[in-house]
Structures are given as structure tokens and as C-alpha cells.
Amino acid sequence: MTHKKIRCYHCGQDVLVPSKAFSAVCPCCNRRVSVEDHIISATYTTSNIETCGSLVVAPTGNLQARLRVQNLQVQGRLKGNVTADGKVTLSQQANLCGDITAGSLEISDGAKLKGFCKIGSK
Fold first, then answer.
1. Exposure check for the chain: N or C terminus, fewer CB within 10 A?
2. pLDDT tens-digit map of 28-43
3. Residue 117 exposed, middle or buried by CB count within 10 Å (0-12, 13-18, 19+)
4. Are 19 and 2 a contacting pair, CB within 8 Å?
5. 122 found inside a domain
6. pLDDT in tens, 36-89
7. Domain span including residue 25
């Protein structure tokens, strides 16, 4: 069985989980963490999304939520603050309204961003 390393978004500890897992219990804080990848391709509103996986807002996607993810790729519209341990990528058509805290940020020409950014390691 292959494993992947994730960082628990509750306690910040690195944890090994099975590669095909959708969720796991952190052995350090004993809390459940989601490790699923998500694709948002329609209008979706929720208070927050937390995953140690990646999230993609497709060109037809319109998401309103506070995000805590590993990586984020925005091709559509997103309204909400973002915390990503890895990389945030905004494509040409992206429209993001919210603050970003991430390990790295890539913004394509034409992307729209309204908010503050804190980029780099913690």
C-alpha cells in the first residue's frame, strides 16, 4: 500500500495516510482530516471547505466559501479567504475576491484578484 504525506489542518503535524484515502484521523490530535480532492463546476455556497487535498474551481464554477486546502487552482469565480499550504494558481479567467495565505502564488495575465496576499513559508 502506498502512502502520501499530508499536514493536518488542525494541529499542523505531518501525517502519512494511504494514497487512496478520503479521510483519516490525525494520530497527533485525534481529529478527522479530509484528504479528498474537489472540483467545483457549478454555483456552490458553504461556510468553509477544509481538505488536505487539492481544490479546483472550474471555468463554470462559482464558489463562495472560506478555504483551507493543500493546493488551489481557480479558473472560475471564488469569493472567500484562502489558506493553502502549497500553491494557489489563478488562470486567465479567474476572479478571486478574498485574502490569500499560501506557500506560493501564480497569477496568469487577465486574472482578477481583490484582497491581501501573504506568500511564503510560515
1. N
2. 999 999 999 999 999 9
3. middle
4. yes
5. no
6. 999 999 999 999 999 999 999 999 999 999 999 999 999 999 999 999 999 999
7. 3-34
Kindly state the cell numbers that stand for 98.
478574498
Dihedral sign computed on CA atoms, order 71, 66, 22, 118: positive
The number of folded domains in the chain is 2
Which three-class secondary structure string do you get for 56-94? Answer: EECCCCEEEEEEEECEEEECCEEECCEEEEEEEEECCCC
- C-alpha to C-alpha distance for 60 and 82, rounded to whole angstroms: 19
User: Do 55 and 7 fall into the same domain?
Assistant: no
> Scanning the structure block, which residue is given the C-alpha cell 493546493?
71
CB atoms near residue 121 (< 10 Å): 6
